[in-house]
Amino acid sequence: MSTPKAEEGRSAGQRKITLGLNPPSNSGDEEYLCRAVAWLSWKPSGEIGENPAGTHRIRSMGDQEETRPSKKARASLGSGGLTAFALRLGKQLAEGDGNVAFSPLSVYTTLGLVAAGARGETLDEILAVLGASSPDDVADFVRSLAADPSGSAGPLITYAYGVFHQEDMELTPAYCNTAAESYKAEIRAVDFAKGDPEKIREEINKWAEAETNNLISEILPEDSLNHLSRFVLTNAIYFKGVWENHFPETLTENREFHRLGGAAVDVPFMTFGPGDRSLFLSYHKEFKVLKLPYKTGEASAAPQARYSMCVFLPGKRDGLRAMVDALAAGGSVLDHVPKYPSNVRKVLLPKFKLSFFCRLAEVLKSLGLVDAFSGGADLSGLVKKSSCDMCLDEVYHKAVVEVNEEGTKAAACTAVVARMMCAMVTSSKEFVADHPFAFYIVEEVSGAVVFAGHVLDPSTSQ
Description:
Layout: E1 15-18, H1 79-93, E2 100-102, H2 104-115, H3 120-130, H4 135-145, E3 156-166, H5 173-182, E4 186-190, H6 197-211, E5 229-242, E6 253-258, E7 264-270, E8 277-283, E9 287-293, E10 307-314, H7 320-330, E11 342-350, E12 352-359, H8 361-366, E13 390-403, E14 407-420, E15 429-432, E16 437-443, E17 448-455
Parallel strand pairs: 3-4, 11-15
Antiparallel strand pairs: 1-3, 2-17, 3-5, 5-14, 6-7, 7-11, 8-9, 8-11, 9-10, 10-16, 12-13, 13-14, 16-17
C-alpha cells in the first residue's frame, strides 16, 4: 500500500522548538531537583552508558491502583492529564532501588498514537489512563507542542514519531491521516512475517539514535521482535537547555551525598557561590522546591513557553518515596513551584548523569491499561478489520539525562510493540540537595512534564 510521505527536510515527525523557561520550587530540608523532562532516581556514579547494567525491568506492581481515574469521568488534557499521568507513573517506577529517569511526555504521546487506532473498551482504558476525553484531544496537544514560531536561540527540543507496520497490513485512511498530519509521523512498511526481525530491530534502533542526537542507540533490545510482530509505534525526544543563571565551574567541589539507607558518597556539587541571590525557591511542609529556568532567546516570539527544571527536595533524608506518594495523590507539580523569586543564601546541587531503561507493560496494566494487552484488544481503527487480530506486546522506554554547570542535555525514546493475538518568600533561604530528591523538567504554561526523575545516588548513572 502507499503510505504518507515523510515531510521533507528535517527528519519526519521531528519538530524543533526554541522556548524560554522559568524555574520551579518546593520545600523540604534539602535540595530537590524539579521534574518535568524526566523522572530520575539515582545513585552517584560515572557516565551515561548503554551497558546492560543500566537495564531495569520494572516488575508488576500488584493490584491496580485504587485511585486511577474513572473511565467516564476524565480529567482535562494538558497540565491535568499529563501531570497526573507523570506522577502516577513516577510513583510506580520509584518502587525500584536505583536512580530513575523517564519522559512522561514521550510515553504519554506514544500511547496517544495507539489511542488513535483503538476502539471500544481498549480506547476507553487508554483514555482513562491518559486523562483525556478523546484521541483528538491528545493529537491536539501534540500539535500544540510542535509550535515553533520564532526559531530563536533557547532550549532546543525536538519530537519525532514513527509507525513501522507489517507491509501487507493496510492501515486505515483515518489512522494514516492522524499519524501523518497530527503527529508528523514517519510511516514505514516492513516485513515482520517473512523478513528478518533482527534487521528490522536494527532499523528502528538506528531511527531512535538519529532522532535523539546519538544519545540513545538502542530502544528495542534483543528478541523484542519476532515473526508475529505486526507494528511498532515510536516516539523520540531530544532536549538541550542552558541555564538562565549558570553555575561557575570553578566553584564545583566534592561533598557528601546521603543515600537511602544512610551511606554517604562523595560527588561533585554545583553552587552559585557566597552571598544572597534572587532565585525561585519555595518551602513547603515536607519539602522544598528549587526552580531553575532555562535561558530563552531575547527575540523569542513564543513567550508563552517557559522551560524549567524543578528540584523537589524532601525535608527528611529518607523522605523521597513519601514525598513522591504525596505528590501523586495530589496530582500536581506546578502547584508547588515558586512563582516569585526570593533571597537565597546557599544552593548546593549535585551534577549527575542518568541512563534508565524499562519495560512498561506491567506498570501500565497496574494503572488500568489492561485490555490493549489482552486477546480482547480492539485496534480496528489502526488497520482494517480483516487484519486486526492484534494486541500490544510490550512498551519499551529509555531516557538519559545529564545535568551540569551549563545546563541540561536529555533524550528519551518509547516504543510500543504489537503482535498477532495468536500465541500471546523574602527571608534568606538555603537549598542543599545532599540526599535523594526528585526532579521534573516542565513547560510551565501548558504544564507538560517532559522529563522526570529521582536521584538516589548522583555518583552513578544507574
